[in-house]
């Protein structure tokens, strides 16, 4: 049995770890609330934008000239892996890395052999994780989370969209954790570019209460409006992915830290039991020594 | 009376009853008052001028955006 002092130091260290994990849990809970608020704040904008995009593009009969449209062949693929800058959040980051590795080595195996698959990493953990798996990261954004706002995200989105428009890539995919609730994150890989069918937006606008559909007056022409809205809605899609990832990160960290706190609690309980056992054993020993000493004196 | 919402991707910038709004449209500045024809238009960089029913005039700087107005409801999406 370990000696008393050892156990005492262990208990002290587990206790301070527990304090740290429970504090981290609190911090994550507060940050999660903020991240969720950001998602909710963005929703009216995104809804309105897709509503306008829907009502404009459903009025257009012919396909619009669009530099983000689908191309006939897929020669070069870009994968954007979105993780966090910090760890201690369970499987949050490793899941993204695992999926990215899977995409490179299974889904786009043939293209990867010809060096036609690039990976862009957002977040420090993606850079480190992918490097250790032997995947080259062509570009990375690490400071994004320091000052997270629409402008900084849309800058990155613009760079990525430009590389598609220039013909550097023919297919761009995002890998990130979609936020469901504090305990559940869904890992998704989502096609970012080319843009899908415009009239098939995922959030089909609800018909207005009166059922009256206004016939809009467009200025400038519908085509020009669509050409302007598409990049904006792509940026919003990217922004949403980042916000989802941030909220998921805090949710995952909260759950992980909750578990860690519980584990520390259990560990302390066991250690205390051992400590008391050892303490009693030493007392018994001492008494035994005294008694046998006294007996020896008598004898 | 005209109901106006100015929305950015990060937050709601303005919501309330107004009498007139002046917008920097791509093909020229224009104003929307009560009973304007339903319109969808894109905006260029400039200033939005809003006059509330209470008479307060406020300005918003925009980099670009989108406006949709119908049924005396104006929604401005700004960047």
Helicity of chain B, in percent?
A: under 10%
Tell me the major beta sheet of chain B: 8 strands, mixed
CATH architecture of chain A: 3-Layer(aba) Sandwich
Roughly what fraction of the amino acids of chain B lie in strands?
A: over 45%
Catalogue the unreliable spans of chain A: none
Characteristic key phrases:
heterodimer, A: 299 residues, alpha/beta, Pyruvate Kinase, Chain: A, domain 1, five-stranded mixed beta sheet, 6 helices, 6 strands, 59% helix, B: 79 residues, mainly beta, eight-stranded mixed beta sheet, 0% helix
Q: Could you walk me through the main structural features you see in this protein, from its secondary elements to its overall organization?
A:
The complex is a heterodimer of chains A (299) and B (79). Chain A is α/β, with parallel strands linked by helices. Chain A has a single domain (22-256), classed as Pyruvate Kinase, Chain: A, domain 1 (3-Layer(aba) Sandwich). Helix content of chain A is 59%, strand content 12%. Chain A has 6 helices and 6 strands, in the order αβααβαβαβββα. Chain A has helices at residues 4-57, 92-107, 109-113, 124-132, 150-165, 222-298, and strands at 77-82, 117-122, 139-141, 171-179, 185-193, 217-219. In chain A, strands 3-2-1-4-5 form a 5-stranded mixed sheet. In chain A, helix 4 (124-132) links the parallel strand 2 (117-122) and strand 3. In chain A, helix 2 crosses helix 4 (124-132) and helix 5 (150-165) crosses helix 6. In chain A, 30% of the residues are buried. The model of chain A has no long low-confidence stretch (mean pLDDT 88). By secondary structure, chain B is mainly beta. Helix content of chain B is 0%, strand content 70%. In chain B, strands 1, 2, 3, 4, 5, 6, 7 and 8 form an 8-stranded mixed sheet that branches. The N and C termini of chain B lie far apart (26 Å). The chains are: A alpha/beta (299), B mainly beta (79). The A-B interface holds A 38, 41-42, 44-46, 48-49, 52, 55-56, 149-150, 154, 208, 214-220, 224-225, 228-229, 232, 236, 239 and B 5, 7-12, 25-27, 30, 37-42, 66, 68, 70-71, 75, 77, 79.
């Amino acid at each position: 049995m370990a000696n008393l002092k050892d156990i005492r130091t262990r208990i002290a260290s587990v206790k301070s770890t527990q304090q740290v994990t429970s504090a981290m849990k609190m911090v994550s809970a507060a940050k999660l609330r903020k991240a969720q608020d950001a998602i909710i704040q963005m929703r009216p904008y995104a809804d309105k934008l897709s509503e306008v995009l829907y009502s404009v593009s459903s009025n257009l009969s012919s396909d619009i000239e669009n530099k983000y449209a689908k191309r006939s062949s897929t020669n070069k693929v870009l994968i954007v892996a979105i993780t966090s800058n910090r760890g201690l959040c369970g499987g949050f980051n490793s899941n993204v890395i695992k999926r990215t590795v899977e995409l490179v080595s299974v889904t786009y195996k043939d293209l990867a052999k010809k060096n036609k698959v690039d990976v862009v990493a957002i977040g420090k953990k993606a850079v480190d994780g992918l490097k250790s798996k032997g995947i080259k990261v062509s570009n990375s954004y690490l400071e994004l989370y320091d000052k997270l706002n629409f402008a900084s995200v849309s800058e990155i989105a613009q760079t990525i969209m430009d590389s598609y428009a220039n013909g550097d890539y023919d297919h761009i995919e995002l890998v990130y954790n979609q936020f469901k609730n504090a305990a559940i994150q869904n890992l998704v890989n989502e096609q970012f570019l080319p843009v899908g069918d415009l009239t098939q937006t995922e959030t089909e606008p609800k018909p207005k209460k009166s059922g009256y559909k206004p016939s809009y007056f467009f200025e400038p022409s519908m085509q020009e409006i669509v050409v302007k809205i598409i990049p904006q809605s792509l940026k919003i899609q990217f922004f949403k992915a980042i916000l989802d990832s941030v909220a998921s990160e805090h949710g995952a960290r909260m759950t992980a830290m909750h578990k860690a706190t519980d584990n520390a609690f259990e560990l302390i309980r066991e250690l205390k039991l051992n400590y008391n056992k050892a303490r009693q054993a030493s007392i018994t020993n001492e008494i035994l020594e005294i008694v046998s000493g006294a007996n020896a004196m008598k004898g | 009376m005209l109901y106006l919402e100015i929305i950015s991707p990060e937050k709601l910038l303005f919501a309330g009853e107004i009498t007139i709004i002046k917008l920097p449209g791509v093909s020229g500045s224009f104003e929307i008052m009560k009973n304007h024809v339903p319109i969808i238009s894109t905006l260029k960089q400039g200033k939005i001028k809003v006059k509330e029913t209470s008479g307060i005039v406020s300005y918003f700087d925009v980099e670009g955006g989108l406006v949709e107005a119908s049924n005396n409801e104006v929604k401005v999406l700004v960047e």
